[in-house]
Specification:
With 139 residues, the protein is α/β, with parallel strands linked by helices. The protein contains four helices and seven strands. It is globular.
Length: 139
């Protein structure tokens, strides 16, 4: 496959907010020079907002990315995904307030550390006071 063709291939990932509005994130070919891009005009929101009412309010697991979120759903766990560590926002804590506890999945490496640091900083700014637990990968 030519590099030019590879750079233009993508799948669309649909994000639906609590009001049914749709934002689209593009996932490009793994060998592409770019990995992700939001469609022009898309609102950056957590992945899975449309499912929040389905979950028991005991806890939720916060992860990076759509595939981790979908994997947890498949296994029956309540999860909400953030499209990369830098896309977690202070306003996103409103969605976590309905749960008794929040588990945050920390991926290995710098990205995982960045996600946890950002979570802690924003939780403080948002005055988020629910019990939070970090789950670290051993791999």
């Amino acid at each position: 496959m030519r590099q030019e063709d590879r750079n233009n291939r993508y799948i669309s990932i649909y994000y639906v907010d609590e009001h049914g509005n749709i934002s689209v994130r593009k996932r490009f070919h793994p060998k592409s020079m770019r990995r992700f891009a939001w469609v022009t005009g898309a609102k950056v929101i957590p992945y899975g907002l449309w499912r929040l009412n389905e979950f028991n309010k005991d806890y939720i697991i916060l992860v990076e990315g759509e595939s981790d979120t979908q994997t947890l759903w498949y296994h029956g766990f309540p999860a909400l995904g953030i499209a990369g560590a830098s896309n977690l926002r202070k306003i996103d804590f409103q969605y976590l307030n309905n749960f008794e506890k929040v588990y945050i999945w920390q991926e290995p490496g710098n990205s995982g550390e960045k996600f946890i640091t950002r979570f802690k900083n924003l939780a403080s700014e948002a005055e988020f006071n629910k019990p939070c637990y970090i789950i670290k990968s051993e791999i």
